[in-house]
Write a structure and sequence with these properties.
Elements: E1 9-13, H1 18-33, E2 37-44, H2 49-61, E3 66-71, H3 87-97, H4 102-108, E4 115-119, H5 123-133, E5 137-141, H6 145-153, E6 165-166, E7 174-175, H7 190-201, E8 207-210, H8 214-225, E9 236-238, H9 257-263, E10 270-274, H10 283-296, E11 299-303, H11 317-321, H12 323-329, E12 333-336, H13 342-346, E13 351-356, H14 360-368, E14 373-375, H15 382-391, E15 395-397, H16 413-424, H17 427-444, H18 449-462
Parallel strand pairs: 1-2, 1-4, 2-3, 4-5, 5-8, 8-9, 10-11, 10-13, 11-12, 13-14, 14-15
Antiparallel strand pairs: 6-7
Uridine-5'-diphosphate (UDP) binds next to helix 1 and helix 14.
Length: 463
Amino acid sequence: MSTSKLNPHVALLPSAGMGHLTPFIRLITLLTSHNVKITVITPHPTVSISESESLSQLFSSFPQVTRKQLHLLPLPLDEPSSKSQDPFYNRFEVIRRSSHLLSPLLSSLSPPLSALVTDMSLASTVVPITDALQLPNYIFFTSSAKMLSLFLSFHTLDDPKAKDFVEISGFEPIPRSWIPPPLLEDTNNIMKTYFAECGKKMKESNGILVNTYESIEGESLKVLNEGIVFNHLPPVIAIGPLPPLKFERSQPLERSQPLAWLDDQPAESVLYVSFGSRTAISREQIKELGDGLVKSGKRFLWVVKDKKVDRDDEMELVDLIGQELMERMKGRGMVVKNWLNQEEVLRHPAVGWFLSHCGWNSVTEAIWHGVPLLLWPQHGDQKINADLMERIGVGMWVKSWGWGGNPMAVVNGDGIADTVREMTGNGFFRLRAAQVQDDARKAVGEGGNSKERLADLIDSWES
Ligand code: UDP
């Protein structure tokens, strides 16, 4: 009798936003390289153009990956507690409310599935479906292990806003000011519901995959896996940092204007400035940031975002920045408003530093390329991410800047210029970034912890 194992068939269900989709795409391609048969279930339509373009690129580069669309129901989110200012959170809710459509889709796949990997924001509605189908379900948590501890604990905390620190067993207390502000509101909102319900239900999954690794979050992973936070937690499996992909890069002939500009700059001379895929900063803050970048005297490449969703972003760059600032930037700075492939920017030899909003993908991509960070968290998990980056010595965080987006606390240009000069003048960050980069690459290289955890997981799907 043959003892050879069959290749597993795994379905993956990402959620809304590039911050969730990008690590899913990296995981999908990694699994494909281990001969896992993959079906990707894509909620349709997407919120942003960048999501639909990334998906098209994935399916054209990996024709062996099957695509199934989950056609979302046209659900009006009428009740105040189920509607957010953030279209990406609203989409989480619509996908959650359309989840019952998954059951027939999952049962129809052939060969039968070995497992489903679901985005963290969908755990509460998807776990009951996979339970009913007796299908193993893994939740992909697209932030840090430290943030996972807050996610899992949120439903057990009584009134976090009433205390100066949030206490989670086994972890250092988290200052209240680092907690995502919607979680501290009195009234209910989508983020609170999603944290409470998904954080609770996730504990019934077969495993939680996290895009992190031992050498930066070993302690958090240990606490989670040794039953210190919760007695009955599924295994928390660190599989990161998921490496950026070659197919995310353009061909040399297609190099965009900003990349061509970088080609002409000296090595490690440029500060790259970006607030990720879905953070729009106020007009006033754009003006002060531009002023600060010019006054810093550094070369810079700045991606400006005026709207959360790229489809809504119609204003001309010059109208946004103003003619005067555009003139002052000439020579030293390159400013763009459209999507710029961050992977290509961070790996470019001219890029020396990264002023980042501290999205988990952005900070782990900076680590991957050994680029030190100026940390300016704007919302969500970003203060917790900034703290971690500061602790491991790869970035500088000016805590008095607070959350971005606070109209009462616009950071002025002179302060930004001083901070940019201080950060870029400190060689320690670059040395440390190189060491941390080395560890990150080892984690997913031959014999690395994350590589082995992923191989074990695939093995368990094969049996
Ligand atoms: N990104 C990019 N180009 C842009 C903006 C963002 O390539 O102009 C990518 C970035 O590399 C990262 C993802 O989009 O992989 C953003 O995720 P992150 O967690 O950093 O932040 P979010 O956008 O979710 O706030």
